[in-house]
TrEMBL record:
Pfam families: SYF2. May be part of a spliceosome complex. This is Pre-mRNA-splicing factor SYF2. Residues 1-15, 38-60, 71-81 have a biased composition (Basic and acidic residues). Belongs to the SYF2 family. One of its GO terms (cellular component) is post-mRNA release spliceosomal complex.
Amino acid sequence: MVRTRNADKSAKDEASQEQPIEQPTENTSESPVASSEMKAETQPDEIKDDGASKARERMNRFKALQARAKSATERNLKETAAESQRLTTDPALLNTLSRKHAFASHNLLKADTEAAGEDFERKRAWDWTVDESEKWDRRMEKKQRHRDDVAFQDYTQDARKIYKRQLREMAPNLESYEKEKLAAIERAAANGDLEIVETEDGEMIAIDKNGSFYSTADSTGFTESKPDRAAVDRLVNDIQKAEEVRLKKRKERRGGDDDADVTYINEKNRQFNQKLARFYNKYTTEIRDSFERGTMI
């Protein structure tokens, strides 16, 4: 079927009438170009705010560091001044000055008292009680005995001093003593030598029947005593310490040379031998070497 030009035109007109004509509507939302422009305007403001806050934070931190450095410098200066004062102040000098001041005050008071015709010792004793005076007298007496006991007298006296020093250093073992005492009481009670009696107050009392519980001059029970391991170790340590002290003193006497020949019997003889060696060693060296090699015989 062949369509004419008029028919095609009429068909196009009908189609155009059927299609609705689109009217331009108002867009309420922002366009992409406008939104990008607004973002570009807000971003510099945010960057400026962040930069300002960081700058303030750095400034606060810097001020805190400055304050800390200032306080540390002040403390260092104070410590330096105190240390320099301690170094310039000699404790020995202070003690000497205080001792001289006390001695001068004592002499001044003594002179004034004697000038007034009074007894100095009696006047000074007014400030002390009887107990303090007795304690002071005992202290002075002990000090005098110790001063007299320092110098070497004989080997018996030296051994006595060592024994007393060891007794002062040895602490009593009260726990072991109570255990041994309780065991001895139980053995004596089992053998019938002791009688355990209870008093009205409920206290237990041990009564020695035949007087054999406590040791006398004829008792030999001490021979059965066996020291414990700790006591033996303590004795060994004391002996080792004494040996170390003896070796140290001998080394000091020899001038630190343990392998040197001992050609003296005491310190005075050693000094005399050294004096002889200064003058005659250059003549006797060859003879002594020959004796040591055995070629002199």
